[in-house]
Amino acid sequence: MVYVGIPKGQADQEEEVLKTIQDGDSDELTIKRFTESREKPGALWHIYAAKDTEKIREFLKKVAEEQGQENPVDHDPIHDQSWYLDRSLRKRLHQEYGVQGWAIVQFLGDVVFIPAGAPHQARTREAVHNLYSCIKVAEDFVSPEHVKHCFWLTQEFRYLSHTHTNHEDKLQVKNVIYHAVKDAVGILRANESSLSRP
To answer: Which fold has domain 3-139?
Structure first.
């Protein structure tokens, strides 16, 4: 979080932000960062374990059906990013499916790391209450430990409609694997003579 702009002269905004942080299921230490340390909050994240993805997907489809919405085959309630799990939906997800995530308030200067395949949602203060403007810098990467999971995500994207924003292979996992192996082979060949010595 590289920037959080807080308008001056509007005292009631701090109370609204505090309520949002509390309603977001944030812990006491996070609340103290805002109330006592006077740090600037920019975004509220809810991150879930990758292993719970199917349960979350099933829950979102169920809620959509209850609201009379369609669940087209070539769309995905997680990848569509059309849902925000508010407090009541998060509570229901926990009660009905045993899924509970982590609430993280990202303050100015904080970095949030999201593990591969972990369903997540972020709401900036601006999106929730039109309070604080913020600028976040995001970077996607593929770590060796999670190549398999990243490849699985790429396969999920292939089944989305051709007009879906996530249909393309953003991670380029096959290219990452190819270039990693090519570089490793190049290094081994360059050092081949020193590796064969007793």
So the answer is: Jelly Rolls (2.60.120)
Q: What are the tens digits of pLDDT across the range 10-43? A: 656 888 889 989 998 999 999 999 999 989 998 8
pTM of the model: 0.73
Rounded Cα gap, residues 27 and 78, in angstroms: 25
Distance CA 175, CA 114 (A): 22
**What does the alpha-carbon distance between residue 64 and residue 55 come to, in Å, rounded to a whole number?**
14
Pairing mode of beta strands 3-5, 41-47? unpaired
Measure Cα distances from 165 to 81, 88, 185, 194 in Å: 10, 28, 35, 49
Return the closest-CA partner of residue 75 out of 166, 163, 160, 153: 160
Question: 1-10, 20-29, 40-49, 64-73: which has the minimum mean pLDDT?
Answer: 1-10
Task: Give the percent of the chain with pLDDT over 70.
Answer: 81
CA distances to 23, 93, 171, 173 from 154, rounded to whole Å, are 34, 26, 7, 8
Match 């005292």 to its residue by tokens: 11
